[in-house]
Amino acid sequence: MKISIQINEGPYQHQASDTAYQFAKAAIDKGHEIFRVFFYHDGVNNASRFTLPPQDDRNVVNQWAELGIKNADGEPELVVCIAAALRRGMLDESEASKNGIDGNNIHPAFRISGLGQLIEAGIQSDRLVVFGD
Amino acid sequence: MAIKKFMYLNRKASYGTVYAIESLEVVLIAAAFEQDVSLAFVDDGVYQIVEGQNTDGIGMKNFSKTYHALGDYDINKLYVSAESLEERGLTEADLMPLVYEDEDDDWAEKPSIKVVSNADLTKIMSEQDVCLSF
Amino acid sequence: MLHTVNKSSFERNSLQSCLNIIDDTSVILLIEDGVISAANNANSSMLAELATQGRVYALQGDVEARGISSKVADNIKLVDYAGFVDLVVEHGTAVSWV
Predict the structure, then answer these.
(1) Cβ contact (<8 Å) for C21 and B133?
(2) Domain holding B128: CATH number?
(3) CB contact under 8 A, B11 and C95
(4) Chain A within 8 Å of B58 (Cβ-Cβ)?
(5) Host domain of residue C21
(6) How far B110 CA sits from the closest chain A CA (Å)?
(7) Min CA distance, B22 vs chain A (Å)?
(8) CATH number for the domain that contains residue C11
């Protein structure tokens, strides 16, 4: 099946991202396709390339990156909502330079896009599962 | 492309957390995709559409007016749990008068809010293809 | 439908709200802190009837993490993440009660 995921909470603060990751990994291992993972609300913080968790604990951002969730064109399908991201100071290079900010923090395994991507995921997938708080 | 039934499940009040305003933003974008959209207001979610919100004292944006725009976007199925209202000492009269214009009835103005029992909500929910929670 | 509940019934009303709306064939999967509702405690009656019907599941990893493996009611079915995926595939629309 084509399964999409929505994640509403940031890494470490809530278990949502961890549960979603374990679910996604299990789905992939079973041969399902993860069509898209959409990060909304504080979930956008899962895309930060600056996190430095302690060595003896899991690295939530890298775990997501290592799943290699991409579409047929090789673009990431770990999608961060642009409105939620900007509000919370999560910027890619393009948004940073557009807005005169001298740095960007979105991990390359993620891409920023609009809320329409969430709706599209709901339309195109067989299942959409939400992880939040 | 087949039309899917999308339900937006709102269970939290506005302002204490971001979920109400950001879920409304999803709904407004969703309008462009011409799917079959319903909103459900359950538990404290009913407070999102209470009339008379004034945020001057808390320094936050009052976005309650935005719910009035839903009718213009063909989003006119706003289901409100009767039990959730009653538990909170609210009635339909406490809610914003959200309306839409019915193109199949000479553009007559009709209420978008439908107060329903949990039993009715059970049936409505069981028909949905996609349910988004915030 | 598959209803997931991720908060303890002692912390939030999510489980009760879910039970108010669940139909006759849907199932509940308790995840994260929601597994606390799978243990024998003051709130056990909430899920008793559905559990008897075989319609209540709990994520095993979350049960073990919280040290309550020995407390979970016998008729609540433990699943791993692969089992979670199977439930999503089998039961159609997923509703998340947070």
Answers:
(1) no
(2) 3.40.1260.10
(3) no
(4) no
(5) 2-97
(6) 27
(7) 7
(8) 3.40.1260.10
Q: Supply the residues of A annotated as catalytic.
A: 81
CA closest to A119 among chain B residues: B30
Question: Which percentage of chain A shows pLDDT scores above 70?
Answer: 100
What domain range is B49 assigned to? Answer: 5-133
B130 contacts chain A (CB < 8 A): yes
Look at C80 and A26 and tell me if their CB atoms are within 8 Å: yes
pTM (2 d.p.): 0.97
Q: Nearest-CA residue of chain B relative to A81?
A: B26
Domains of chain A (ranges, CATH numbers): 2-131 (3.40.1260.10)
pLDDT single digits (tens) C51-89: 999 999 999 999 999 999 999 999 999 999 999 999 999
The contacts of residue B131 (CB under 8 Å, 6+ apart) are A130, B6, B7, B8, B9, B125, C93, C94, C95, C96
Number of domain units in chain B: 1
Total structural domains in chain C?
1
Interface predicted TM-score (ipTM) of this complex, two decimals = 0.98
CA C63 to chain centre: 11
Contacts of B29 in chain A (CB under 8 A): 114-116, 119
Residue C83's region, left for phi above 0, alpha for psi from -120 to 50, else beta, is alpha
Which H or E run contains B40?
strand B36-41
Q: Show which subunits contact A, needing at least 3 CB pairs below 8 angstroms.
A: B, C
pLDDT band at B2 (very low <50, low <70, confident <90, very high): confident
Angstroms from C15 CA to nearest CA on chain A:
13
Q: How far is CA A121 from CA B4, B49, B50, in A?
A: 12, 28, 31
Contact A19, A130 (CB under 8 A): no
Interchain pair A119, B134: CB under 8 A: no
In this predicted structure, the answer to whether residue B1 has a pLDDT above a threshold of 80 is no
Largest CA distance in chain C: 33
